[in-house]
Amino acid sequence: MQQLHVVIRTRGRAWQGARSMESQTDFASHASFMNSLVKEGVVLLGGPLDGTPDVLLVMKANTPEEIRSRLADDPWAGNALLEITRIAPWTLRLGSLE
Q1: pTM
Q2: d(Cα 80, Cα 72) in Å, to the nearest integer?
């Protein structure tokens, strides 16, 4: 059964700190890939954590391995711009994603 997971991804070795997110290599391909995960209902929420090199995603999946497999297809994973640092099952207790 699918459950919610919180995923933390961080900038990889290929991230160019002097460039904006939109100026990184393959940004359009990355954005298209992530938008497709949103349309599929796999990614529910996501965005950079201000003041950190990290990105937070809330995803639906059966297992952490399923998340790793899906995110491995992200162009930014393949060219070392983002890497997964943590995946944790999450129980939403306050508010709603509906």
Answers
A1: 0.93
A2: 11
